[in-house]
Each structure stands twice: as C-alpha cells, then as structure tokens.
Amino acid sequence: MTTRTLPRKPDAPPVDLPSRPAPSLNSVAVLVVLLGLVAASIWSIIDLKINIASIVDSVDNARSFLSRTVPLDFPPFGELLGLIGQTLAIVTCATVLSVVLSLPIALLAASNTTPGRSWRAGSRVVIVLARAVPDLILAIIFFRLFGLGAIAGILALGLHSIGMVGKLYADAIEQIDEGPPNAIRAAGGGRLQQITSGVIPQVMPQLIATALHRFDINLRTSVVLGYVGVTGIGMAIADALRTMNYQRGMALALVVLILCILIELLSGALRSALLGAGRSKDRGRLTRWADRVSQGWVSGSVPPAEPTRLSPPWTGQRVSRTAFYILTAMVILWAIWGADVDFAVFVQGLANLPQTIGLFLPPSTGGIMPTLLAELVVTVQIALAATFLGLILAIPIGVLAARNVMPNPSVHKTARLLIVLIRGIPELIIAIIFVVITGLGGVAGALALAIGSIGLLGKLVADSLEETDVRVQEAIRATGATRPQVFWSATVRQAAPSFVAHILYQLDVNIRSATLLGIVGAGGIGFYLQNAARVSQFGVVTTIILIVLAVVLIVEAIAIWARRTVK
Q1: What's domain 71-276+317-360's architecture?
Q2: pLDDT for the residue numbered 427
Q3: Do domains 71-276+317-360 and 369-566 have the same CATH topology?
Q4: What is the pLDDT of residues 56-80, one digit of tens each?
Q5: Which whole-number Å values give the CA distances from 115 to 70, 167, 200, in the listed order?
Q6: Distance CA 353, CA 561 (A)
C-alpha cells in the first residue's frame, strides 16, 4: 500500500519588519541637554568639594554642635502658642490671598474659559513670572514698601504662590466636563453663570486640595522669611541663632518640624478625601446604622420622596459641606485678626509706591558684578549638585513607595511615611545645621537641598509609577516575564517622560531655594542679596533679581521644551 504525501508548500517569503524610526532632532537635542546637566551636576559636586572625606572631617563639629543644643530650651507655653498662632495666621492669609488671585487668573489662562488668546497668553506670563521670582525677593521689596510685620510676608508668600496655584487651577479647569457649561449656555445663561454653575462646582475639590497643599509649602517657607523680618516662629528662630542660642533655636526648630509634619498629614488626609470624590460603597457601621435610623438622611443615599422639589435637600453631605464653608470663613477671619494686619499701613505703603519703585531703579552693580556672576554660578552649582544627590536617593525610595511596584504593604507604607517626614523638614533648618557642622559655603546648601529633594522627588516618582497603565504590565507578565523585566520594560518606560519633567522641575525649585538659603551662609548669591538690602543698595538688589530671574526662566524654558519633546 502506498501513501501519498501532500506537496510541500513553498516557504513563504520573509516578512520585512518596519525599521525603527530615526529619532527626531529635538529628541537628540533633549538627550544632549540632559547628559550635559548630568555632567554639570557631577562637576558641581567635585568643584564644591562635596565628598565623604569632607563629611567625615565634620564629625567633630557635629558633636560640638550637638553638645551646644542640648538640653533644648523651649519658650514659655503661652509665648510658644502665640508664635505658632501668628505663623499659622500669616500662612493662612497668604494662602487665601493666593487662591483669591489665582482663580480669576486661571479662568483667563484656561483654554476653555479664556475670552481670547491675548488674555490667555498674558495670564500664562503672570503665572510663570510669579513662580520665577523667589518669595525672598518679594519679601525684601514689600518690607521696603510696608515695613516690618505681617503684611510684607503675606504679600510675598501670596503673590509667589500664584505661580503654582494658578497653574494647577488652570490645568484643572481645562479638564472639566464641558456638558454642564454648554447646557447652561444653551439655556440662555451668561458667561458668569456658566463659570459659577458649570465650571467652579466641578473643580471645587481640586481647588481646595491645591490650597491645602500650598498651605503646607507656605508654612515651611515662612520660616525662611523670618530671617528678613516676617513675624512669627521663623523670626524667633532667626533671633535665637543670630545670638548663637542654639538651645532655643533648635527647640523652636523642633516645634516647626512637628508642626509641619502634623499639617502635612492633616492636609494630606483632607486632600485624599476631597479628591476621592464619590461615596464609598463600604460604609462604616456607624454610618449604616445612622442611615437606617434616618432613612438614608445621613449619607443622602435615598432620593427625596417628592421629585418636584427644586432646591437640594439637607442631607448629611450638604450639612457637612455647609459646616465646612462656615468653619473656613471663621478661620479666615481669625487669621486676619491673628496676623495683626494693619490696613492703614497697607494704604500708606501703596501711597508711597512710586517713591519705593524709584529706589530700585535703575539697576546697578555696585562695582561687584564679577562677584555677583561668580556667586550666581555657585547658586546654580548648589542646585545641580542637590538635584543629582537627591535623585540618587529619591528614586529607590519612590520605587519602594509605589503600590503597584512594591506589593508588600508594610514596605510601601514605610517608604511613604519616610517621604512625609522628609517633606515636613524645612530646608532652612537643615541648612543651618549643616552650616554649623561643615562651615559656611555651598556644601551646606547643597546637602540641605539634597535632603529636601528626596521628599518631593520621592513623592513624584512614586506617583508617576502608580499612574502607569497596569494593562501593559499585565500583558508583559503574561508572556512569562519576571518582575524586574516587567518593571524595566513596562513601568519605567511609561513613567520616563514624567521622570524627566519632575527632575527639571526639582532643578527649578532648587535654584530658587539656593537663593533663599544664601541668607544663612549656605553659599550662593542670596547672601549678597540680603547684604544689599540691609545697606539700602536697592539698585544692586534689582540687578540680582534680574539675573536670578533670567536663570530661572531659562531653566523653565528648557523644562517646557523637554516635556513637549519627550511626551
């Protein structure tokens, strides 16, 4: 018996796979710039002499400093409460001012609510300039205008906050559902009605959450401004350290640390509750019991029996919301009273505005332009070194804090707690300690900002990793990939553009912060800025403002260009 075999099909021609497209010129340029920043950071670390040997040599200074700080000398309880209350009042007023000014600016800057392109461009410029000018510089200007006290600090913190608050508000407004405002427009509603009834209610959770986040930042910054006359606990720390009363200064610094951490935890919980809009299906026992007793009134889960009612019912949610608004109004009134704002001084300062502006114009160098440029380079070196060192430690901490990367709850919770603790420490306090231990100069500033960078960069890295598309990771895992392979090929690849944006943002922040820390001898141009203001050389102050602003705007432009290219 013979068997027949089917004729063999000829081999299919090989499939030509498409070649990988060549990188664009912009992508190559961004890569070159990033590599240049890495090289500049390493050069900065070497030039500033930040190394293990210099840190080891400072161990004896650290022991000596520690012996001069213990036992801690806390002020009387009543005096301490007064300092804390005054600081919180100033920070509250500044945050409220930033929200009041940022909301209309954001409405003009958002593409879906702006009246026109010129309004949008002008508002965006205001936001960028507010973010670029350090609050220390604004404080120096306002102190000349209004004198020492709370007004200068409130205005400096409030106006600088527009840079962050206005940008985040504009981004939130651009992401709203266009249905409600379009429906109001179709019903004949005017522009103001569309905004108040169709836009603001949608972004209200983001507005409040951003304000709470800015409150945290302003609280830490108020300690720095205490060195130039902002009343409160920051000024008390400055006075104690100027007289080398380290026991009192470090005691107050510990109070600030605890206060910042408590406020960070409280505002973080409130932000999570606000941004996690929508009622949880898993209600607590107390809520379920109260709903049974009140027939759904507490959580508002039962619709009203009569559908003809036009006004919203007074559910538990509405009662809580109204109580929150009333409490907020009471806190604002208390803050205005507690900050001891003298409106007569404010009006008088505005009347003297033309004369004050004349003091700062024209810019002058005071014969020290080469020195100013050299110190500007040191300021940039401090920022580069701090960003690089902070990044080295922030990446592993951020990876451990990401829930989708580290499934062990105890590990990622510990990492997140560490990030919160680091973020709660004002950089000024760290800088003062390093100045005493390592001496005056850029080493103290770079190490202080490096520690501060761990908190912000660690959080941003963790958030970026958690925002990646889990489906891509699951698809690669389904092919048999190991956990490291999934992490590098799916998670990191998706988060890489965000990493670039966050690193450049941290560099931008560190350049401004390095200017601030110069006032305590941590290196850079801030020391000369404070000296020029102290001896009334306001033309030199203007020159320093302009060159710092130019550097910040250049970094801002590089960051915007890199973000658009890497996406």
Answers
A1: Orthogonal Bundle (1.10)
A2: 80
A3: yes
A4: 777 777 777 778 888 888 888 888 8
A5: 60, 17, 17
A6: 37
Token pair listed for 398: 């951020």
**How far, in Å, CA of 256 to CA of 210, rounded?**
22
CATH top-level class of 369-566: mainly alpha
- For 559, residues 6+ apart whose C-beta sits below 8 A from its C-beta are 501, 504, 505, 507, 508
Burial of 296 (0-12, 13-18, 19+ CB in 10 A): middle
Q: pLDDT band for position 306 (50/70/90)?
A: low
Domain ranges of the chain: 71-276+317-360, 369-566
Instruction: Tokens for 52, please give them.
Output: 């293990």
The dihedral formed by the CA atoms of 397, 402, 405 and 411, expressed in degrees to the nearest 10 = 60
Q: What token pair was written down for 496?
A: 């890489």
Tokens read off for 320? 């809580």
Q: How confident is the model at residue 10 (pLDDT cuts 50, 70, 90)?
A: low
pLDDT digits (tens, 9 = 90+) for 379-430: 999 999 999 999 998 888 888 888 777 777 788 788 888 888 888 777 878 8
Q: Are 215 and 328 spatial neighbours (Cβ–Cβ below 8 Å)?
A: no
